[in-house]
Amino acid sequence: MKYDFDKVIDRRNTNSVKYDFALEKGKPAEILPLWVADMDFQTPPEVIEALAKSAHHGIFGYTETKKDYFEALAKWFKEGFDWTIEPSWLVKTPGVVYAICLAIRAFTSKGDSVLIQQPVYHPFASSIITNERTLVNNPLQYKDGKYSIDFIDFEHKIVTNNVKLFLLCSPHNPVGRVWSKEELLRLGEICLRHNVLVVADEIHADFVYPGFQHQVFANLKPEFSDFTITCTAPSKTFNLAGLQVSNILISNKKLRTQFKQEMARTGYHQCNTMGLVACQAAYTYGRPWLRELIEYLAGNLAFLRSFLQEHLPQIKLVEPEGTYLVWLDFSKLGLTEEQLEDLIVNKAGLWLNPGTLFGSEGKGFQRINIACPRAILEQALKQLVKAIRSLEL
Predict the structure, then answer these.
(1) Is the pLDDT at 75 greater than 80, yes or no?
(2) What ranges do the domains of the chain cover?
């Protein structure tokens, strides 16, 4: 490989949320973190060079983007997903969760129902609840080690709760599904039939393993584009979360105007200067780096799969089709949630995400971030082996 993803970079004492705030978050100081969704890899060198050039200039005034920024985005989405976007569709925000909250506030009223599919990225639920909307859950179905959508329940929940908005997680975090074209079409037809707007969080779209293909929901049918707010960002793909920039794409002019008006009510205008610089450089030059990264992540996944089979057969890997976040089923250990948390944190010295963070359907599961050098992943798994063996003594 041209890029060294095996290199271990010390992230401590950099004010890293992942590494430097264990005590503040109630965890042991020396815990090994594989929880929050940022990677332990440096961003592509071209991005670092672009940031260094901007830093050397030394003036960080209000910044906007010219047509070359949009052209970099347009080329990325066309090459990666065969999706043709228009300049007028673009609304830049400081993050996808911010955009989700904007959409909830722009398109629903207090008390209105918003539907999600748990276990799912936990800010979905908090965004609904803190904005005083009604959370409606269409739980994913877990059978034979794979998750699927209960379409009958999906439509029933929409009708009986008068759902106004659906938050779609695609690819899905944390269960790793890359929804098929057929699944997304079926969801879309139901939403079309009942006038439900869709906020499609597609932030993990670039992380899809061989044999699968991400489908941009808004690109499946012209009718879908008309009721969809598509949330994208370079933050997960290129490890740029701290630079605070996302690209929200809304083809429907009326919806876009409502969205922008809600953003104006928050007082937000230009994005972070360095975020814009990094985003443009990443989408312009980052494709070769991403290809090697996905290859490396596939290697980490293969290592994890093999290690569990050989040393920890009690833990079931829910095979991910996309994302670098892996969903592990610990239910065969027969532990309570408190006992499982004690095992992971205190006995294994690991910081993972407990499954119940993503909804009650996550009971008995843990989410692990495999976007790290393989040596770190191996160390974490060895610590887990030692902890589980201690249960048997």
Answers:
(1) yes
(2) 32-44+287-391, 60-285
